Amino acid sequence: MSHDAPYATLTPDCVLDAVGACGLWTDGRLLALNSYENRVWQVGIEDSSPVIAKFYRPARWTDAAIIEEHSFTLELAAAELPVVAPLRFNDHTLLEHAGFRYALTPRRSGRAPTLESPDQLQWLGRLIARMHVIGARQPFAHRGTLDRDTMVQQSMQAVIGSSLLPASLQGNYRAAAERLNGAIEQRQSAIGPVRQLRLHGDCHPGNVLWTDDGPHFVDLDDARMGPAVQDLWMLASEPRHMDAMLEGYRQFRDFNDEELMLVPVLRAMRQMHYAAWIATRWHDPAFPTAFPFAVESRWWEQHIADLHELADELT
Q1: Residues annotated catalytic, as ranges
Q2: Which of 90, 136, 189, 224 is the most buried (most CB within 10 A)?
């Protein structure tokens, strides 16, 4: 399998064969779903509801890390949290076919949450708190931590080592990234140690689906250790949204208000990681098509300006 084109051999027939290998009778209907990191398909099943087949990007996570994510999701589901958990086949959730690792989940539909609604925000806050009660029971052993080394320093090295960053902007990027790294370090030192727990990790509106019965969470692919506020801030575009979520959150779990000072840190980490993610994955043929702006100097100039702006916010 080529790392320059990791999904080149993942043909529709291969997807159908992988699902069929689990003992499910497919009806031939396939729908590719929006995903760049992994490849995700909705697969029709004879006389039953479709399933979702997620094929993991080679070399991103170890088997142990994927199984740990599955175990956490199943632990949440067992506690009656509304998450979409992987299906078991012969007591295994991580499957393999034709060199690809994959998992199957039930298909769950829904709409995006209404983040202007205090009731929905409080509801989300209660559910995230319940998730964190379980997440705090024990640490992840294999999935890493949302920290400055991973999200900032490694991201900076990935961008500098990429051919996407114009040579004329390398010095400017390095200066902006190092300035932001220092500002993040200062903010974290001022706050002091914050309790780390198992998180959803990527709890943005696209990973919350709402139905008439309420919300459910999908895609724990970025689950890792980190502060509780990580699972809140991406759903709170305004302070009043965070206030509403925390009102619901505190009904099930205490919240350390000092973590709110980490929100600009987490926002900065995410921005640096996003640029590095594109740079690191550029060999995948899907990325130049999806992110054509990344070859333009003006995009990198704006990214550098954004890093300075984030550093200003932290100092």
Answers
A1: 202, 219
A2: 224
